[in-house]
Amino acid sequence: MRLSLCNFVRLKSVLFPVCPSTGGGTIKPRRKCVRLAYKGCANRPFYHIIVTNRWKHRDVQPYEQLGTYDPMPNQDNQKLLSLNLDRTRYWVGRGALFTKPLQHLLGYIGFFPIHPRSIEHVWRRRDAEKVEKEKQAAS
Predict the structure, then answer these.
(1) pTM of the predicted structure, to 2 decimals
(2) Nearest to 56 by CA among 84, 37, 83
(3) How many whole angstroms separate alpha carbon 30 and alpha carbon 20?
(4) What is the DSSP string of 79-135?
(5) Which of 79, 78, 72, 66 is nearest to 37 (CA)?
(6) Is 7 helix (H, G, I), strand (E, B) or coil?
(7) What is the reported pLDDT for 75?
(8) Which of 26, 40, 55, 82 could be 45's S-S partner, Cβ–Cβ 3.0 to 4.6 Å?
(9) How high is the pLDDT of residue 23?
(10) Using one digit for the tens of pLDDT, what is the confidence trace for 98-109?
């Protein structure tokens, strides 16, 4: 029986048969994803930054927790983000996908380039503040 290249899967430059007995079957690659996992309660959001499979639910047991994000401003009007940058660089090198909200956050701190939607968000906020100031000045 002659096996074609279609009956093998390439993993790290080595070919492996999908099913040795029949030579058929498919394996879908499972890419890792870095995402925010909601761990807060009602009216008090809090997030863990985790690494998990892309197709799994956000609250499953992660491979690794990279950091935390607290979106509620504290006394100094700061939103706190703690992140292990070495492990984040490791997962970037491994080809992990980052969700868009996380890309926005990492763009704000300078880890990734600033996302275009982040720039739009800033301009909209500035325009809204200008309109608010004009209304207050007119009153």
Answers:
(1) 0.69
(2) 37
(3) 21
(4) -EEEE-HHHHHHHHHTT-EE-HHHHHHHHHTTSSPPPHHHHHHHHHHHHHHHHHHHH
(5) 66
(6) helix
(7) 94
(8) 40
(9) 56
(10) 999 899 899 988
How close are the terminal C-alpha atoms of the chain, in Å?
A: 87
Which amino acid is present at 120? E
User: How far, rounded to the nearest angstrom, does the alpha carbon of residue 7 sit from its chain's CA centroid?
Assistant: 33
d(CA 65, CA 49): 6
Distance CA 17, CA 26 (A): 10
- In the three-class reduction of DSSP (H, G, I as helix; E, B as strand; rest coil), residue 6 is classed as helix
What are the domain boundaries of the chain?
1-29, 32-138
pLDDT tens per residue, range 21-60:
665 555 556 789 999 999 989 899 999 999 998 888 767 8
Q: Which of 89, 68, 64, 88 is nearest to 80 (CA)?
A: 68
Read off the tokens for 91.
């997962």
Length of the chain: 139
Strand order in the sheet with 80-83: 80-83, 64-70, 47-53, 32-38, 97-98
Architecture of domain 32-138: 2-Layer Sandwich (3.30)
